[in-house]
Amino acid sequence: MPWILLSIAGALEVVWAFSMKQSQGFTRLWPSLITLIAMLASFGLLAAAMRSLPLGTAYAVWTGIGALGAFVVGIAFLGESANATRLLAAALILGGIMLMKASS
């Protein structure tokens, strides 16, 4: 169960990062509200997962999911570049997440 909570928390991190970008510096109401709600939910689920998972593992996986997810959303929806160096960096993050999960 803690891994499921952590995965949802990571997905919500992607939601709040994207909606924060859409809020244009918190000048647009709905994206700003979505950002704040997703942040609270993400932190709450991370805290719940940390009851059972080690701090370093939980935090690294949470930030890794958020970073990788934001990277994919940026390419898919915001027209950000997907050059070889950025793709290699994303692969390294994914590898790190997988190693953290395997080590727990």
Automatic annotation (TrEMBL):
It is a multi-pass membrane protein. The keyword Membrane applies. It is found in: Cell membrane. Keywords: Cell membrane, Membrane, Transmembrane, Transmembrane helix, Transport. Pfam families: Multi_Drug_Res. Coiled coil: none annotated. The chain crosses the membrane at residues 33-50, 57-78, 84-102. InterPro entries: EmrE-like, Small_drug/metabolite_transptr, Small_multidrug_res. Belongs to the drug/metabolite transporter (DMT) superfamily. Small multidrug resistance (SMR) (TC 2.A.7.1) family. Gdx/SugE subfamily. NCBIfam families: PRK11431.1. This is Guanidinium exporter. It comes from Novosphingobium panipatense. The lineage of its organism: Bacteria, Pseudomonadati, Pseudomonadota, Alphaproteobacteria, Sphingomonadales.
